[in-house]
């Protein structure tokens, strides 16, 4: 998968050299290209922002540098069409489902903004030709979209074939479509069997795989009820069994 990121802080993306995503890049699974937005300005101050029409606080990112930058990135492969992802707190929620959708795309272009956001005509311009998603990673406001891009690239990158060591480890993720949809993962344990007087739940060392699966499902339901009760309403009744209803 190819990922382009245009930002006034390309150095913000140094963490993409590290760990799982860093390895995926080394192995050629992920091709990340960073671009400095200011390279597409033409004044001595390399200006990327201006005051908002209609008044109000803060500054808005000018359309010209974004348009030139995106045009140049698109020109790198005129036959291919990236999906453009614009991080903004006003966007649609970024979910595991959307991460999976992005993981199936050959090319993503992220356009993280600073200040009050990008002049909306940029999204209108490319939205008429390409898929442009305005996406929020949560109901809080960051100082800019860069941290949101790091979050999305990590969530998408770990889903790419060959990135996770164990082919099954993304299947049981919290929120993963299927049995974990709208469920949080329950608690996990490793050795030693007793630590500071706390014992590992007996069922997990029982060797009864069916009962262990049932216990994990119960714990997932319990944790979801405690931490995210609103998710329970989204559980598919067809997938609930009698035992689920008793938890
Ligand atoms: N930029 C600022 N806040 C954001 C958020 N919550 N999600 C995505 N981009 C953002």
UniProtKB/TrEMBL annotation:
Specifically methylates guanosine-37 in various tRNAs. HAMAP family: TrmD. Keywords: Cytoplasm, Methyltransferase, S-adenosyl-L-methionine, Transferase, tRNA processing. Belongs to the RNA methyltransferase TrmD family. Its EC number is 2.1.1.228. S-adenosyl-L-methionine binds at residues 137-142. The keyword tRNA processing applies. InterPro entries: Alpha/beta_knot_MTases, tRNA_m1G_MeTrfase_C_sf, tRNA_m1G_MeTrfase_TrmD, tRNA_m1G_MTases_N, tRNA_MeTrfase_TRMD/TRM10. This is tRNA (guanine-N(1)-)-methyltransferase. Residues 1-232 form the tRNA methyltransferase TRMD/TRM10-type domain. Homodimer. The lineage of its organism: Bacteria, Bacillati, Actinomycetota, Actinomycetes, Streptosporangiales. It comes from the Bacteria. The keyword S-adenosyl-L-methionine applies. The gene is trmD. It catalyses: guanosine(37) in tRNA + S-adenosyl-L-methionine = N(1)-methylguanosine(37) in tRNA + S-adenosyl-L-homocysteine + H(+). It is an enzyme of class 2 (transferase). It is found in: Cytoplasm.
């Amino acid at each position: 998968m190819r990922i382009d990121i245009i930002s006034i802080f390309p150095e913000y993306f140094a963490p993409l050299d590290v760990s799982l995503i860093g390895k995926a890049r080394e192995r050629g699974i992920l091709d990340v290209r960073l671009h400095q937005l200011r390279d597409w300005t033409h004044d001595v101050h390399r200006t990327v922002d201006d005051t908002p029409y209609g008044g109000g606080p803060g500054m808005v990112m000018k359309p010209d540098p974004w348009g030139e930058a995106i045009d140049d990135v698109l020109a790198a492969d005129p036959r291919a069409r990236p999906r453009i992802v614009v991080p903004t707190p006003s966007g649609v929620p970024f979910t595991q489902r959307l991460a999976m959708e992005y993981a199936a795309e050959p090319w993503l272009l992220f356009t993280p903004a600073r200040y009050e956001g990008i002049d909306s005509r940029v999204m209108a311009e490319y939205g008429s030709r390409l898929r442009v998603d305005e996406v929020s990673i949560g109901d809080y406001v960051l100082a800019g979209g860069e941290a949101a891009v790091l979050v999305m690239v990590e969530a998408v990158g770990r889903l790419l074939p060959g990135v996770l060591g164990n082919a099954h480890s993304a299947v049981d993720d919290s929120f993963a479509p299927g049995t974990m949809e709208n469920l949080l993962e329950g608690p996990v344990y490793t050795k030693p069997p007793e630590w500071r007087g706390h014992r590992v739940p007996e069922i997990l060392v029982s060797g009864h795989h069916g009962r262990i699966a049932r216990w994990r499902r119960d714990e997932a339901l319990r944790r979801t009820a405690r931490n995210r009760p609103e998710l329970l309403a989204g559980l598919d009744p067809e997938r609930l069994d009698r035992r689920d209803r008793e938890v």
